Amino acid sequence: MMPLITQHTAADIPERKRMVNADIFVSERAIDDMIEHSEKGAMENAEVMGLLAGHVYRDADGEYAIVSRTVTSRLLSDDVSVRFDPSDMETLFDALDGLDFDYVIVGWYHSHLGIGCFMSETDVRTHSSAFGDTGFAMVIDPIKGEIKVFRNSPDGPAEASMVVMEN
């Protein structure tokens, strides 16, 4: 079994009051990078994926995340599936090491091609195996022009609220 990417207790998460009641705050740069990546993949008829780097905080309303950057590496993908190329994991780790801030991996993103934004059974298994009950999954459909973000809940994936922040 793969170790969880994020493991923490509430005591590990710094307290910080959010200014707007949203589950995840994403920088324009990160959104632009994900959209550009997914559009490039769509031109090649291939799904794409990457990791969301940022911070997790908590306040009286619960946990929330701030995404500052995304990272990815070479992928093995087609029009209905995607995964990191196991032979290129060093590139992914180098990209993470190259970030110019202290970060945690707060989730992942991936694309769907023309079928809309939702969490498929495979997506749910992928998310649960990597993040357990935490983390966010961003789904981008560049063909339909949709973006949605999800988080785990006791009843399965639930759509989360997102705010895009100016850089």
Summarize the structure.
The chain has 167 residues and is of the alpha/beta class. It is 22% helix and 37% strand. The protein has helices at 28-43, 89-97, 121-131; strands at 24-27, 49-59, 62-71, 75-77, 82-84, 104-111, 136-141, 146-153, 156-160, 162-165.
Can you walk me through this structure?
The chain has 3 helices and 10 strands; from the N terminus they run E-H-E-E-E-E-H-E-H-E-E-E-E. It has helices at 28-43, 89-97, 121-131; strands at residues 24-27, 49-59, 62-71, 75-77, 82-84, 104-111, 136-141, 146-153, 156-160, 162-165. The longest helix has 16 residues, at 28-43. The chain is globular. 32% of the residues are buried.
Percent in strands = 35-45%
* Helical amount: 10-25%
Q: Give the helix tally.
A: 3
Count of structural domains: 1
The CATH topology is: Cytidine Deaminase, domain 2
Oligomer: single chain
Give me the CATH architecture, please. 3-Layer(aba) Sandwich
Main beta sheet strand tally, sense and closure? 8 strands, mixed
Terminal CA distance: 38 Å
Rg value? 15 Å
Order of helices and strands: EHEEEEHEHEEEE
Mean pLDDT: 91
Low-confidence stretches: none
Spatial strand order of the main sheet: 9-8-7-6-2-3-1-10
- Give me the count of strands: 10
Shape: globular
The CATH superfamily name is Cytidine Deaminase, domain 2
